[in-house]
Amino acid sequence: MAGYIGTGAVPQATQKRDSFTATAGQTSFPTSGYTPGFVDVYMNGVKLAPADFTATNSSDVVLAVAAVANDTLEIISYSTFDVSAQTFTGDVTASGGTFLPTGDTSAGDAAAMGYAAADGLVLTGQGSTSDVTIKNDADATVMSIPTGTTGVTFSGSVTASGSVTATGASVGALARGAIQVGNSSGVSAPLVAGGADTVLTSDGTDISWAAASSGYRTLLSTTTISDDATVLITGLDSTYSEYQFVITDLLSNDSDGYPLRMRVQANSAIDSTAGNYRFSVITGNSNSTTVSNGVSGTNHDHIDLNAAMDSASPDTSYLVFNIINPSGTTNSVRGYGRFADMYDGVLYQGPMAFSYNPVTYAVTGLQFYNAGSSGTLKSGTIKLYGIS
User: Fold this and answer.
1) Which domain holds residue 24?
2) CB atoms < 10 A from the CB of 30, how many?
3) What is the pLDDT of residues 16-38, one digit of tens each?
4) Residue 377 has pLDDT above 80, yes or no
5) Residues 193, 301 within the same domain
């Protein structure tokens, strides 16, 4: 804004004064310069009317009536100025208003505030450590932008009332199901998604995925039967003192109704030695009121686990049994459970128990097969659990 200081003028101007002591009859007074129209003339302290003098050539003021000797003449001239591109020393206070910049900042600005239509308020700075720093009323740093970077450093905690979306190398693009965790180096790193039926666990130091526990038991493996002559389930060791097998929707390719048969794996081999196995299967069925020891053995090379398997749905077999301390070499390995068979439209059910007598080697797996000489296991599912 521009203006001048004087009678009736706006207060954005500077002034200068020229003083003279007149000689008798003097009319012309040379000044240090002025802007025509921005001049006040005082004769002996009395301001002259514009008609009483001429001030048009920017240097001389000429009186309409000559002065008397020793008259004092004071000429005050005003010059306009603009506040743009000015340097101020000390604080600048905007009282009762706001500071409204209309131009953008530049990359070379040491400390500048500006405005851009797309960016809005723009702060630009250049410092040896930070380009922009925001401090609180205790002169403590709240937030800073390190010099030459696009990152922001907060000195304290950050509170978000809404959702926070973060992108960039510090967070990284996470694959589906992955999570961000602190690693052994104390930095953030991705932990890939765990497999099916796994949960996050901690050893007190690090986080990892582990098989999900269903209360008292932990699922260790799932095996699908598909026209198999034998099915071997391994993974028995000293991790658990007891393991559980759950066999569902079991069918065989033999229609003669043979039971499911089992042998153990010990010393890395399937043991088929006669006399090493004992078993008892108590059977009741829906067509009889009597219960019998349907299948038993005291000197066998195998264990029978149920009464009979059918070859077509819906007449399937279900078995649940536990095996105790398979890794032990002091006592014989024993097991117990129940079965429910549908064979030829008749329900057979009952408990079963068995033992593997040799104690020389730990049992590391169980092999399942059809008791029939030519049949195979057609379909079904075997799940192995560790019992806590």
Assistant:
1) 13-80
2) 11
3) 999 999 999 999 999 999 999 99
4) yes
5) no
Of the three residues 62, 80, 98, the one that is the final residue of a domain is: 80
Q: Which tops the pLDDT comparison, 200 or 165?
A: 200
CA-CA-CA-CA dihedral for 73, 74, 80, 81, to nearest 10: 140
Segment 73-123, tens digit of pLDDT: 999 998 766 666 667 777 777 776 777 788 888 888 888 888 888 888 888
pTM above 0.90, yes or no: no
CATH number at residue 353: 2.60.120
- Least Cα distance to 123 among 135, 111, 134, 136 occurs for 111
Distances (CA, A) of 276 to 184, 234, 354, 376: 51, 20, 11, 24
CA 7 vs. chain centroid, Å, equals 69
Could you give the 3-state DSSP secondary structure of residue 52? helix
CA R_g for the chain? 51
The reply to whether 250 and 207 lie within a common domain is: no
| Alpha-carbon dihedral angle through residues 29, 32, 36, 40, given to the nearest 10 degrees | -70
Question: Rounded to whole angstroms, what are the CA distances from 44 to 26, 47, 78, 191, 256?
Answer: 14, 8, 20, 93, 142
Please tell me the distance from the alpha carbon of residue 332 to that of residue 101, in angstroms, as a whole number: 91
β-pair partners for 352: 281, 337
The CA-to-CA distance between both ends of the chain, in Å, stands at 85
260 and 207 in a single domain? The answer is no
Please report the DSSP string for 115-180 in residue order. EETTTEEEEEE--SSEEEEEE-TTS-EEEEEETT-S--EESS----SS-----STTT-PPPTT-EE
